[in-house]
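input
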Amino acid sequence: MRLIVDALAADFGGIRTYVENLLAAWDDEHRDTLDDELLVLVREGSDLATGRHARHEVRIPRPAPVGRPWRQSVVTRQLVRDFRADAVLATMPSISLVRVGVPLGVVIHDLRHELRPEQFSRPRRLLRKVAYDRAYALADVIISVSQRSLDDLHKLHPSLQQTPARVVHHGADHVLSWPDVPARSGPAITFAHHTNKNPDLVLDAWAYGVRQGLDLPSLQILGTGDQRNALNSRVAELGLTGLVTLAPYLPEPEFREAMASASMIVFPSDFEGFGLPIVEGMRLGIPVVIGPEPASLEVAEGHASVMSSFSAPGLADAVVRASRFDEAHREAARQHAAEFTWARATQQTRAALTLAP
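output
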């Protein structure tokens, strides 16, 4: 298969982790069993790792939200002809505005902008709606990162039930290359880079635990960004100074070390497309706390401590229960997470592309 992979939106966050690991696994699979050639589209100057695959850097005209779809439309159609591509894989629903001339697979991560619109500015909601709706219309096959996201898609866009679709979970085995540090020697880790991660709820739960005399671990909040000052004030107001520390967006090596040494992953997100830290933590043998949210429940499959409700007492209780996980429980979670491999994701993605009419 000669495949063009559109990774123009994969410079940051979870989408970058997804694309880099998918490409790396495709590289490994290609050497062993597949006879594929991939051409990866990246932004001009991007440091996205594409392995041994060919890459094509694309200059995006400003303003980028308008310039990218226009440039994608021109470049993708041209490269399909020049590369003699058999298919195109869009790693996000942001793709050419016109048909590309070969089967198009579109990866769906989540529909949070439709189901949690208050978590997005109006311009961002509008841009997503235009880009995503066009991608849905052009898709010959849909690849969803979870059953939850596919169910959301079919509920909100029922006409897409006629489009071939496949659920392809992320891998977790990339954590095996992370630093070999003593697991559970560091603080519990939680996140603040999006409002759905609920950092304020986490702080309320820690304050509740202190008042109740519960044995809660120290806590580090990652990805505080613009919220840092407000969260600092909340930490002081709740009397958590010394128990809770804040961190910005960490460079990748520091992030991996923080995750690998964590005593617990606290992930009370109220909306996920997949929830990668869940399987990362379990694969490392670290107890994981999640909220009663469909995608989190789907990937954890009974191996995480689940909050009874999105409340401070519900979270504090789940943290205490997670701290009591014995080795047998952690090993069962580790074995479950070991099923999430990037090789499997690569094979299933490739198979999904063959479903296109």
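quick obs: Residues 174-337 form a domain with the Rossmann fold fold (CATH 3.40.50.2000).
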